[in-house]
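Data card: per-record layout.
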Amino acid sequence: MDQGKLLITEDEESLRFVLKKALEDEGYWVQTAANGNAARQLLTDTHFDVSLMDIKLPDADGLAVLKEIKAAGIDTAMIVMTAQNTMRNAIGAMKNGAFDYITKPFDLDEVLVLVKRAMDSRKLSRDFRELKEEVKKRFEPGVNIIGTSSSMQKVYKTIGQVVDTQATILIQGESGTGKELVAKTIHYNSPRWNQPFVAINCAAIPRDLLESELFGHEKGSFTGALDRRIGKFELAEAGTLFLDEVGDIPLELQTKLLRVLQDHEYGRIGGRDVLKADVRILAATNQDLERAVKEKRFREDLYFRLKVIPIYLPPLRERRGDIPLLISYFIDKMNREMGIQISGVSPEAQKLLEEHTWPGNVRELENALIRAAVLSSGPILFPKDFTLQNKPVTTTLEVDQLSLEELIRHKLEDYFRRTEGVDVDNLYSLVIERIERPLIELTLKKTRGNQIRAAQILGINRNTLRKKIVDLRIELKKEGS
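The structure for this 481-residue chain is written out next.
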């Protein structure tokens, strides 16, 4: 079996023969050269994995040949053989790009071990390069992120400009526009591509657990902390941390996140160790963070720290010309991954899809195609095969026409779309908290901070109101402020 291609350059015929025989017995394809000129020609004409080369050749200095080969871009792993066991030869060999060197006289077993190590190293390097190319190909802008519209071309251009930097990036766009896919594309085309990509959905984790999820905790640091937990920052070491729905991070935790971005240091809850944060931060949100800053729900300094480079992903309704491309892409993907055979959509169905408002954007389009393909009785998808959601609430007039219950239902439906596939614990408390906070804040504003009157309006005991103010960390404003 061919274990690899190997060249032996040695002027002593007997040693050349012995080495060739021993290496061929190990399964290597072996060629030989008796001088430097022959070695140069063979290395240029044939791709060898490993080359054994004597330093003293009748027509050349082996180190000079080594230097020429490396300068020519030939990536053969070069092992230098020398009878002169001097530090100068060793330093010269390694300085000129040799994989290793071996001194004469040597045991054949020693040569075989060294050659195998060089072959294994070559294979790892080759696999690494192939993996890098495959990953880059998979996450190249325009491959998985589909679209030729001017707005998407702008996104591609920005990605190309930022991949090699360490700048923090804020990706903004509605749910389902592909924010995490953009984050992965940036990561896998960056120098950190072979390090971890760790994502966390800040909206899907109860606020009392989010700090532990991000920074980790020590055993016994709080009730229920039975073991040490490694946080997402630690898991993403040397790689990229993607903070999805960053606008849902509580204010008190925003302060700690800001400190990490500024000082590149953090600590586990209950821990004394100061850990270094060698992590690139990519954040995403479907919220208007500028408005959140004005409403004191998001720290202004953190907003500007995250928005060093902003990327805006347009909703699907603003790039309808990309819908035919997306349809074709998703049909090919379904056929490949699900083992079905869908040829395409009818002209009427394509018109239907192009005119739909797509409240769930690209994610909704993919799900609609999957559902239609599974339920369809033929290879062509027709309008009857599609069940599309109604137009979402978009205008102030429409919002005003909805009841409070309908508004809450609309927001919860959007929340469940955003957290699809994510296990969420304690959802009841999470939702109630998000309703209670603005309710109490607005009631206190209406009563100019009068807690007795606010409790009466809310229909709760004053002590209960005080407890909720503390638990929800509601900032009390002075009367008239």
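Known properties of this structure: The two ends are 84 Å apart (CA to CA). The longest strand covers residues 77-82.

See the next section for split statistics.
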